[in-house]
Design brief:
Blueprint lengths: L5 H30 L6 E3 L6 E3 H17 L4 E4 L3 E3 L5 E9 L1 H5 L6 E8 L2 E9 L4 E6 L3 E4 L2 E3 L11 E4 L7 H13 L3 E3 L4 H9 L5 E7 L1 H13 L3 E2 L13 E6 L4 H7 L7
Helix pairs in contact: 1-2, 5-6
């Protein structure tokens, strides 16, 4: 897709550079906390599985300070510190540590997720996986990369010859998660769940997973991954971002061109549970 003007392109290029720099800095800080995780004070949010630490808050603080210093008129939505509306037409959407439960339990399946919205569309997505030292990056119209190498999804990959990521959380009835897995298995597919929806979306963009489905996610969990998948040649459901809806959750589904329609057809709807 084409950005509307040279000025817009320059503005987006500058923000893309910042997003990549922030992902590296935030990833390094998060990794330091990960290596000292036994020292962290842990709090619960909605339930015993929904946890947060000082690492989440301090990593988000770092990102917010960098954005405010470079683009003070941009809006920012972060999982830990909420929404600050801007006036520039750009809104950053940040999850400082997606996969906090794996993070705190010593597993590598967590990441830093940074997205940028413009006119309701994810136009930048950068995901840093510090334990693997991998950086997934995408900008509207410029494609997606993994550590600088171009990503392009294979249309021959389907639910039947690949792995599909399935996510769930306490917002979703357990039976619905079970139905998702059952439907996928009955269709001849197989699934994985790692604990980080953002990272599994990055793996879809990289072709490691053919698709990802979660019945309810927030904007900070999925928008960077959505940009990556789209720029790699895949498809995704639209996530509502208008007004207050950006604070609320929505179904998330993304897949490569050979799997999207099939995954969309078998994914259960939350109103049926």
């Amino acid at each position: 897709m084409i950005i509307s003007s040279t000025e817009d392109t320059i503005d987006l290029d500058k923000r893309f550079q910042l997003a990549q720099e922030m992902a590296e800095e935030a990833g390094a800080l998060a990794l330091d906390y990960f290596q000292r995780r036994h020292e962290l004070m842990i709090e619960t949010k909605r339930d015993l599985h929904d946890v947060v630490s000082i690492a989440d808050r301090n990593v988000e603080d770092l990102i917010r300070k960098r954005i405010s210093a470079s683009f003070p008129d941009d809006g920012i939505l972060g999982e830990e510190h909420g929404y600050e509306e801007g006036t520039s037409g750009y809104t950053w959407v940040v999850d400082p540590i997606d996969g906090t439960a794996p993070f705190l339990n010593g597993l590598s399946s967590w990441c830093v997720s940074i997205a940028l919205l413009h006119d309701g569309e994810p136009v930048i997505g950068v995901i840093k996986a510090p334990c693997d030292n991998e950086t997934f990056a995408a900008m509207k119209g410029k494609g997606a990369t993994l550590d600088g190498q171009s990503l392009e999804l294979d249309p021959e990959r389907t639910l039947q010859n690949g792995l599909t990521g399935i996510g769930g959380n306490s917002h979703v009835p357990p039976a619905m998660i079970g139905a998702s897995i059952t439907s996928l298995l009955e269709a001849g597919g197989n699934f994985v769940r790692t604990g980080s929806g953002a990272l599994m979306l990055a793996h879809v963009a990289a072709g490691r997973l053919v698709g990802y489905y979660e019945p309810y996610m927030h904007a900070w969990d999925c928008l960077a991954g959505y940009c990556l998948v789209k720029e790699a040649g895949g498809e995704h459901l639209r996530f509502p971002v208008e007004g207050e809806t950006i604070r609320k959750g929505s179904p998330v589904l993304a897949a490569g061109p050979g799997a999207f329609r099939d995954l969309e057809e078998l994914a259960p709807r939350i109103e049926n549970f």
